[in-house]
Amino acid sequence: MARVTGTIVHIGGYTAEGGGRGDGIVAARRDPDSGELTPLGTVAVTANPSFLVRHPTLPVLYAVNELPEGEVSAFAVGERGELSPLAVRATGGAEPAHLAVAPDGRHLFVANYGGGSVAVLPLDERGVPGERSDLVVHEGHGPDPERQEKAHAHMVSPDPGRGPLLAVDLGTDSVYRYDLDAASGRLVPRAPRVRTGSGTGPRHLARHPDGRRCWLAGELDATVTAYDLTPEGALHQRGRVDASERAGHVQPSEITVGPDGRFLYVGNRGVGTVSVFALDGELPRLVAEVETGGEWPRHFVLTGPHLYVADERADMVRVFRVDPSSGVPVPVGEPVPVFSPTCVLP
Predict the structure, then answer these.
(1) What is d(CA 199, CA 196) in angstroms, rounded to the nearest whole number?
(2) What is this structure's pTM?
């Protein structure tokens, strides 16, 4: 099963409920050598599955349903990428935008963007989520009256080791830290919260494989902020750099570190690029900014030597091969047509 499902990619996106043109989760077969994706069609009809994640040890996939009354859907993954429904649970908040599984596979964390909250759902031995065990609601706002009128939790990032869960909140310019009480499934706040620059609008966070550094994409000020990360989960800011050198309205989206820890990648909506930064100094150093062929690269993922970019508004997933020496992606083949894609999950 590992051999078969290792070639399957699942793609989430927006459906009619979110103004999109998709109808659920799409599967595609990936050629590990060429990187080519062959669409296999919709494998789960579900509303606004805008972000997907897999269980660390079980053949289970989880999707947020980004709706006014947020839900999370769980699916068993078959050998050919087919999805069988396991459960649908309420997240307790509006418009969930991100989710992650605890490293031990026992809990699911969900960021409710519209609700400005973080939910916890216990997972049983089959990976099936139970009813919500906790909901922590953030309070406050930022200087942008349209985007930061209240809290907007945008990402949950569990520590791969024993550190706290980091919850990135665009609305309050903050990164909240929580310890999980595994017995009760409740979150214990670890004060103080980390405050970003005013108006940053933090969206997503990327951890370095060494566990000692991380970087934060600012959606509203188009920056990347560098932090030292201590074993206790404290974040100490090093400085900031621009996410893009292009003229125009830049709205960073996804951010991730390459598996060897040498390069940082940032998607830039509005100008349709992926920026590549070298991580050989105090701050990220821009080495290239690559056009994606669309305007709105919502999400991307690195797997093997390839980078897959989901462009929500161009209705496509673009495939790149990453040069192992320079870290720079080079497009290969033709874009893969997918309606309103927002997440690519190998």
Answers:
(1) 8
(2) 0.96
